[in-house]
Amino acid sequence: MASASLLKSSPVLDKSEWVKGQTLLRQPSASSVVRCHPSAASGLTIRASYADELVKTAKTVASPGRGILAMDESNATCGKRLASIGLENTEANRQAFRTLLVTVPGLGNYVSGAILFEETLYQSTVDGKKIVDVLVEQGLVPGIKVDKGLVPLTGSNDESWCQGLDGLASRTAAYYQQGARFAKWRTVVSIPNGPSALAVKEAAWGLARYAAISQDSGLVPIVEPEILLDGEHGIDRTFEVAQAVWAEVFFYLAQNNVLFEGILLKPSMVTPGAECKERATPEQVADYTLKLLQRRIPPAVPGIMFLSGGQSEVEATLNLNAMNQSPNPWHVSFSYARALQNTCLKTWGGRPENVKAAQEALLIRAKANSLAQLGKYTGEGESEEAKKELFVKGYVY
After folding, report:
1. Measuring CA to CA, which of 91, 124, 178, 315 is 20 to 30 A from 53?
2. Cβ contact 225:245 at 8 Å
3. What whole-number percentage of the chain has pLDDT above 90?
4. Which is the catalytic residue, given 145, 184, 201, 266?
5. Is 266 a catalytic residue?
6. CA atoms within 13 A on the CB side of 57
7. Is there a contact between 190 and 203 (Cβ–Cβ < 8 Å)?
């Protein structure tokens, strides 16, 4: 498919009209901001009280040999995970599993941050200790999912947009007070459904507004436009769409005065669609993905924390390892949910006597991905469970 026809047409504004028409762009006063790059023509701005902290937090999360544990599943999604091992979706069962995850001895050696759902941010462990405090003691930075989920995008080709900007400023301020230091907002782009120019612009604009608001509250924003694995398309089509999506995202991040040194990215790896007959090797995935990053991501961004997106635990680790076989301008690491938790969950099975073994299973996966971040993972001794594909068609997070 020619690049000129990359995005299916839809009646949308061009960039100048889009930005001009927004009423949410901040007009900060000189007394409330510091100019982080006074010599730069772009004149990026951020609150004086948070600029240094944002950079420090981002660098802490993007530290060598470490990545992110994504445990921010909504209560409904968490219920599906619990149902897979025969447990009811109750707060007590969610608390038990989350306690298991955050209390793994030595987790902080391989994991630098944990993304939490709102319930978890305010939750305590089964022993009555605040989960946020447990994470800090483990050496992990607490993060928080702030979007309100996906809803149908009117006027598109059965695509979606991510809601949650209403009230975000007050929510992020409260999350900061509760101990969160970074945030996550996930929106998606579907290749089989287009993607339409409208859907890509909506995804990019929403991410940019969220990022600006989060930084204004002291939270490092994880920018996550997930290009879904669903589809029969080849790796070249994924690469083509990803280039267009990331160009839009960084255009609007700049328009919203987002400090690049104070963000983290959570992109999809460039892979074929899950139903494509031609599979890609880890080396091919690494080649395409690094080429995408080099063309679209400024080196000022400290960390690229990849999502697994339904890859098996081993596949996600092998692909990450392949990307770290040579030096990169960024910290190239992981922000995995299922690709860290799956074997752990199955090992636990909801039984107290299995907690230690389940924690060991999580630590094995965390260590494997730590080695992959350093380019030293070999794949030896992996279990059959870890090799199972985790892709679910039409997956709802």
Report:
1. 124
2. yes
3. 79
4. 266
5. yes
6. 28
7. no
